[in-house]
Amino acid sequence: MTVLPAADAPIPIFTTLNEVYGSLATAARHAERWDDLVREFESKFGHKPTYVTRAPGRVNLIGEHIDYADFGVFPAAIEHDILIACAPRSASTAAAHPEGHAPGSVVAENLHTRYARQVFWPTRSHTLGDDVPLDAVRVAPWHLDIDKSELRWESYVKAGYYGVLNHFFSPSSISPVPVPVDILVTGNVPPGSGLSSSAAMVVSSTLAFLAANDIFDGEKAPTKGELVNMAVENERRVGVNSGGMDQSASVIALPGSALYVSFVPSLHAEPIVLPRDAVLVCANSLVVSNKAENAKHQYNLRVVETLAAARLLSHHLNLQVDSADGDNTKRRLVTLREVLGRKSGFYQDEQDAQSEDLVQLQKGLVNMLGNTMDYLLPNFGDRTDISLDEMIQKSGMNEAEFKESYFSGVDVETTNFELYLRARHVFEEALRVLQFREVCLVEGGNEESKLQTLGKLMNDSHDSCDRQFECSHPKVNELVCVARSFKELETGRGKGRIYGSRMTGAGWGGCTVSLIHRDDVEAFIMHVKKKYAPYESMSEEDLASCVFATEPGMGACVFKLTE
Ligand code: NG1
To answer: Which of 101, 253, 399, 406 sits at 20 to 30 Å (Cα–Cα) from 209?
Structure first.
């Protein structure tokens, strides 16, 4: 039997919940939600769904804000997920809908009453050129209106749909058009909590439109890796220039393993089992981080800062990262990973890049953290931040070129840039990820000392996110302190065994993840519930969804409903 690399495997199509969740016990916890979803679909649309698509959220163990610099990360899928029931709308049921039967029209409902019903359809403009015969009408790519100025639930559904339209329904007037689809969405990944509800929405939506249009029947069906790439591209349509970590975890994860996900030379995911006694506990700070709305001075600004840092370093090191375009120079958005590879001599060019050699990479990172990086500091004074003018001057590009390359596709709001601190975080964090992976892969050995090393790496990661990448939040730091104080608590088996605690995901609010000894999980959860002040007046039921243990779970799938 050939074992496919995880990213090359097909997207699974299941017919039992046991397969969907990877275990009977987990499936049993979710059966009622699935029943509700299918029943409600029928009552809202008057016909049964043909498929339910599922995409889980993820927790990132380590490797924060380095995926978009092309360094490897270490996430795991969680049990919480987004489910979408869907079915093509037949002409007879369409007649009952005032929305009609436009090609590819969508009636989208959400089980959560907060989110109102939405109806939309893709359009494409036809243009008749003078030079084309009438039967070769030119057709523009499909278009869906996505409002980036405010957070709207259906934007994520549209983002998923966009990719399906533009990859599978070519803009030609004679090719097939998408079918009208009814969908019903439900989910339990808390939004804005760093557990990737947005990626889960986009992945699940992409799958729903693929399934409703029968794209899984036949050779066109994308592999897991292709679905990840589509979902990353799709999510950018909502206005966030994300890396590929969340989508990889949501799509490729396998039960019982975290994933080491790397992006160079191409997407690769290595399932890695954590030490036997390791349990991850997520806790929600209750500070909602709205990534899309705050992207200008948070997420997207960090993407620009890390890319600009890479540009300045490549200029300083005299690396040939651009290509000639006639008499002009074609500028590229070089990443910190590429700068490192070129500096260390193991990066030739994009096509020719060898598979990742982790030993070389590790050496390169250590080397990079020397004084080369001082170039990112301003020339005078004690500050670490640099002005726009000085940044441009140190980039080797002229102002127009720099602004065109680094600011035209993305909206950011600041006058000064922390290139030095951001790049330091990226290189140090990339090194911690490699060390984390190595410890997990050691066979045998002392379990306790492995857990301690992993926990320390997680603690260091949090501190760097807070101080150098400035993406934590005072309440998240408070929650991390509460978690870490468990080690002072007498549990009856000795002091509480917490090995590490850190923010997870983009930050600026959201969840923490803590590494706890399996036998101490219950005591730890009680401790956090009691000590984190914002939990004070919450009901047990609400608390249970704020602090929970999670085992690495199964990735996305399509569930085929049979009569
Ligand atoms: P979340 O936590 O889902 O907002 C975001 C990015 C990731 C990664 C992390 C930070 C998206 C969809 N995800 O995650 O790619 O960059 O921040 O490590 O934008």
So the answer is: 253
